[in-house]
Amino acid sequence: MIEIKNIKKNFGDHVIINDVSAIMQTGKCNLIIGTSGSGKTVLMKCLVGLFEPDSGQIVYGEQSFTEMDNEDRKELRQQIGMLFQGSALFDSMTVEQNIMFPLDMFTKKSYPEKLIRVNEVLERVNLKQVNNKFPSELSGGMKKRVGIARAIVLNPKYLFCDEPNSGLDPQTSLLIDKLIAEITEEFNITTVVNTHDMNSVMEIGNHIIYLYNGTKEWEGSNKEIIFSKNEKLNEFIFASEFLKDAKDMRMLEMKGKIDNNRNMDELLK
Amino acid sequence: MNILTEFGRFLLMIKGMFSRPENSKMYWKEFMHQCSEIGIGSLGIVIIISIFMGAVSTLQTAYQLVSPFIPLSTIGQIVRDTVILEFAPTLVCIVLAGVVGSQIAGELGNMRVSEQIDALEIMGINTKTYLVLPKILAAMVVVPMLVVISAALGIWGGRVAAIMSGIVSKTDYDKGLLQYFQPYNVFFALAKAYTFSFIISSIPAYYGYYVKGGALEIGRASTKSVVVSCVMILFADYILAQLLLNSPPGS
Fold first, then answer.
1. A70 contacts in B (CB within 8 Å)?
2. Is the pLDDT of residue A116 over 90?
3. Which of 139-168 (A) contact B at CB < 8 A?
4. How far is it, in rounded angstroms, from Cα A139 to Cα A126?
5. If 0-12 CB within 10 Å is exposed, 13-18 middle and 19+ buried, where does residue A257 land?
6. Cβ–Cβ below 8 Å for B114 and A77
7. Taking the model in full, what pTM does it have?
């Protein structure tokens, strides 16, 4: 579990994050959603320590991340995996070397042991025969999967994904979303995903935080989001005419997908 | 950002490099990789520059020494001292500022904008120690070696030019090389090489490490790092000459 307590972050006079509090739940996909410039990435970078919040507290389990010294942070970071928007794979290394890098750095395993672990995680993200390829030889979706494999190779307790679907086609996006959800459940990790992709929200959003201009505007789950009365959230969700039509014309099907046990007559009221 | 702020941030980067390595074996591997990149990668250009530098020095010195009262062996002596004192350390390091400097700034800049540095930070690795320190240490180990090679090749290039052009005989040139040799000059050349190697590795590392933006900014950072390194080399060259040549030991 990660607890965010009253986080504030400014760049100069510009307020980016304004008093955001939330609890990121263990074993669930916690989504931070919002328009571009709403502060999602800054909040995530505060969570992993790439930015220092101006005030507030971030607590990992029982440990206060904001009050830790560098050495303790280093220790904690070995329990954190992160998938970056552009995958952030090391260009000069092969896929195998990329995934093996955290093992090389933080374990004393022998090469065969490390190779077994690398192949395990590659198999887990449904990639085979790519060990000796360089990142430049991979497609966008494959890079993301290698990024996920590298992020989980040390069995982290916390997984952060920054825009995991950016630049991917809807089909591949769905695969990545499912993979993130499966890994979260399988390893019981606390996953935080930054996205503005509504498909992801509906697919994997066990717990959703909607940011608007740096403020937490709404919090709930994918089962609740569609019925939300929050105007700003609805503007965000139904930004396109297509989605508005989808809401008006196909509400029943959409609701049905979310909860098949609901009474349709009740939903029509 | 003003010059004092930049200098302060540069000093903080240098200070930040000194922390306990997470895994000494990996740092050693990175250090050796950088030695190879900087040393072997620059060897070709250093060889070419040094030979021609020595050859041209011989021809131009001979052109200027027209007095019949000056023995021809003096040409060898002048070429030796010029190459050791100035050409090998300064000229080679200015060239290396372009070759090695742009490579370091480009590599770190690319890692910064593609979030590879952030990825390392999140893994719990001190990126200043892992990425910057091995580059600076490697430069400080291999650049003086390159300078020594350059000095030897420069003197040899001058000898070849002297013999081929027939300006000075082999015997006169060799005699000149041996006369009035001061070992202190080699110390001075190495002092310059160590200073310049720090400049040509740390300044580009600074510009690359803190780059913001995209490909265009990486290019700009790379160019700026080379320009600043060259200016700093010339400035340091003057300071070192003032400090070490105006009061050599025993004077």
1. 19
2. yes
3. 160
4. 14
5. exposed
6. no
7. 0.86
Mean pLDDT of B152-179: 93
A162-180: pLDDT as tens digits: 988 888 888 888 888 998 9
pLDDT on residue A3: 92
- Check whether residue A83 and residue A147 sit in a common domain: yes
Do residues A155 and A218 both lie within one domain? yes
- Expressed as residue numbers, the domain containing B232 is 24-245
Judged by DSSP in three states, A66 sits in helix
Confidence of residue B184 (pLDDT cuts 50, 70, 90): very high
A155 and A185 share one domain: yes
Contact A105 B123 (CB under 8 A): yes
B212 found inside a domain: yes
Lowest mean pLDDT among A161-170, A244-253, B129-138: A244-253
Contact criterion met (CB < 8 Å) for A106 and B124 = yes
Nearest to B22 among A86, A106, A160 (CB): A106
How many structural domains comprise chain B? 1
CB A157 within 8 A of CB A76: no
Residue A250: band (very low, low, confident or very high) from pLDDT cuts 50, 70, 90: low
Considering the domain architecture, whether residues A180 and A249 belong to the same structural domain is answered as: no
Same domain, A222 and A243: no
Kindly state whether A49 is in contact with chain B, defined as any CB-CB distance less than 8 angstroms: yes
Q: Does A13 touch chain B if contact means CB atoms closer than 8 Å?
A: no
Contacts of A82 in chain B (CB under 8 A): 119, 122
Give the per-residue pLDDT at A66.
87
Question: How many domains is chain A partitioned into structurally?
Answer: 2
In this prediction, residue A135 carries a pLDDT of 94
B19 lies in some domain: no
- With an 8 Å Cβ cutoff, is B122 touching chain A? yes
ipTM: 0.83
Could you say which of B23, B115, B124 has the minimum Cβ distance to residue A88?
A: B115
Is the same domain home to A242 and A226? no
**Residues 6 or more apart from A2 whose CB is under 8 A from it?**
A23, A24, A47, A58, A59, A60, A158, A190, A192
Q: Are residues A223 and A264 in the same domain?
A: no
pLDDT tens figures, A1-58: 899 999 999 998 899 999 999 999 998 999 999 888 889 999 999 999 889 999 999 9
- My answer on whether A171 and A261 are in the same domain is no
Question: Could you give the CA distance from residue A5 to residue A23 in angstroms, rounded to a whole number?
Answer: 9
Answer whether residue A269 shows pLDDT above 60: no
Q: What is the pLDDT of residue A248?
A: 64
Please tell me the distance from the alpha carbon of residue A42 to that of residue A22, in angstroms, as a whole number: 15
CA distance B94 to B150: 13
B204 located within any domain: yes
- SS3 (DSSP) at A33: strand
Domain that holds residue A208: 2-230
Chain A: give the shortest CA distance to residue B22, in Å: 7
Which pair of structure tokens corresponds to residue A265?
């007559």
